[in-house]
Design brief:
Blueprint (H helix, E strand, L loop, with lengths): L1 H4 L3 H20 L6 E6 L2 H17 L5 E5 L2 H7 L7 E4 L5 H11 L1 E7 L5 H9 L4 E6 L13 H7 L4 E4 L2 H8 L6 E3 L3 H11 L5 H7 L5 E7 L1 H13 L4 E6 L4 H10 L4 E3 L5 H4 L4 E3 L6 H4 L5 E4 L11 H4 L4 E4 L6 H10 L4 E4 L10 H4 L6 E4 L9 H14 L6 E3 L2 E5 L2
Parallel strand pairs: 1-2, 1-4, 2-3, 4-5, 5-6, 6-7, 8-9, 8-12, 9-11, 10-11, 12-13, 13-14
Antiparallel strand pairs: 15-17, 16-17
Helix pairs in contact: 3-4, 3-9, 5-6
């Protein structure tokens, strides 16, 4: 990691931040106090843990909370979060660092969010009999916990006092490896996105950008393969506008995104409300505002399905706009839960062929509660038949029946 820090900005931020952790804790925390320690790997996990943090503070204003991050994308955005006593980087999972961190934090309990399994931290918390929980966790059959060689990871699960999972499937899977201290408690992302919608901020630059647009697509947490699909379509359709919020936005990524556009594009940080209306593409180069931006679009493209793992679809679903994403089998459960929770939402799955976007804008106004599953598509099918299927699905939606058309299975939900 230290070698990576020489060339990687995020790695350098993390290493430098970890060096400050112990001094920060000594300077901030009263050693006589017991603290609730909450750990989130990155910004997405923080947003899942945030409803719990704010519930704790609302019910017990005197509670002392330590919030730790592993990733700079979480820490750098939320380092000034005012609902906790201190925000810090989590030191590496090395026994000496672990003991020093826990000594300084002096936790009355430890709460991990979703996918955080640090063997030395967990075993030390168990050794000290500190109640330890994980929330919004989700388990799948292919994970290492359920492999014959996954004994070390199963031992980590046994360190938790209680495991709160998102669904019954996860509870049943854990039962097969004799992990019974499990409770189905749902996904706190639903709580969070509902809170965000209720307290949505105003963004004058965005409002000016979309003011004269009849169709705006919001790309959330996009990666290069996502942009390779959407950008050619955007360039060929002057009647639409595009908001791109890339998952990472170093100088090279921003330059690459702007370079793919053949229309007028600008960075959010360099745009004013006065000149935003002149742009066709607005690239978001800051963290923390995407969840509020989806409401400005008629359709959302959720990035990550071509490799990184699909990002939070609930942030868009809560606004009831149509959503496009490349299907990712591991995230089918997230999609299903979102449709059940937000029954007014609309979703289109995108097969990895850029031509499939051809009719999306004219579908949007009528795609009430359409879900298209790519599982029956074959590479031999001509993109035109899939475009027609998207349009056909709209016409068939009012029947509420499941149909097959051009290789798609289309179901009306809600």
């Amino acid at each position: 990691m230290r070698l990576a820090a020489l060339r990687n900005h995020k790695a350098r931020l993390m290493i430098d931040g970890q060096k400050r952790t112990f001094d920060l804790l000594r300077a901030t925390l009263n050693p006589e106090n017991k603290n609730i320690w909450i750990h989130a790997s990155s910004l997405g996990e923080f947003e899942q843990g945030r409803p719990l943090i704010e519930r704790i503070k609302s019910e017990n204003p005197d509670a002392h909370i330590v919030l730790s991050f592993f990733s700079p994308s979480g820490y750098e955005v939320r380092k000034n979060y005012d609902k906790v006593d201190v925000v810090c980087y989590l030191p590496f999972d090395v026994p000496s660092e672990v003991r020093k961190f826990i000594d300084l934090v002096n936790p009355s309990m430890a709460i991990f969010v979703k996918y955080e399994f640090w063997g030395n931290y967990l075993s030390e918390l168990k050794r000290r009999a500190i109640p330890t929980y994980i929330i919004s966790s989700i388990f799948r059959e292919g994970q290492i916990f359920f492999r014959p060689w996954g004994g070390m990871f199963r031992d980590m699960l046994r360190c938790f006092t209680r495991i709160f999972v998102q669904n019954e499937e996860s509870r049943q899977l854990l039962k097969t490896i004799n992990i019974d201290n499990v409770e189905v408690a749902g996904d706190t992302r639903f709580d969070r996105v509902a809170d965000v919608r209720g307290a949505a901020k105003e963004f004058p630059i965005i409002e000016s950008f979309v003011a004269n647009s009849s169709f705006t697509l919001v790309m959330g947490s996009s990666w290069q393969p996502d942009e390779d699909i959407v950008m050619p379509y955007f360039n060929e359709h002057p009647n639409m506008k595009l908001i791109v919020a890339p998952h990472e936005f170093d100088v090279a990524r921003l330059s690459a995104i702007v370079g793919k556009t053949r229309r007028k594009a600008g960075l959010y940080s360099a745009t004013s409300a006065e000149n935003a209306a002149e742009l066709d593409c607005l690239v978001i180069d800051c963290f923390g505002i995407l969840s509020s931006l989806y409401r400005y679009g008629q359709m959302a493209y959720i990035g990550g399905g071509f490799g990184a793992g699909i990002h939070n679809i609930n942030e868009a679903a809560v606004y009831g706009i149509a959503r496009v994403r490349r299907p990712d089998g591991q995230d089918a459960q997230q999609s299903s839960r979102a449709r059940k929770q937000w029954q007014h939402c609309r979703q289109l799955y995108l097969h990895p062929h850029r031509s499939h976007l051809a009719h999306l804008p004219r579908v949007v106004p009528q795609t009430s509660s359409i879900v298209c599953d790519h599982t029956h598509i074959t590479s031999s099918q001509h993109p035109k038949s899939i475009n027609q299927c998207l349009w056909g699905a709209v016409l068939l939606a009012p029947t509420g029946k499941s149909v097959k058309n051009g290789g798609f299975r289309c179901n009306k939900v809600g």
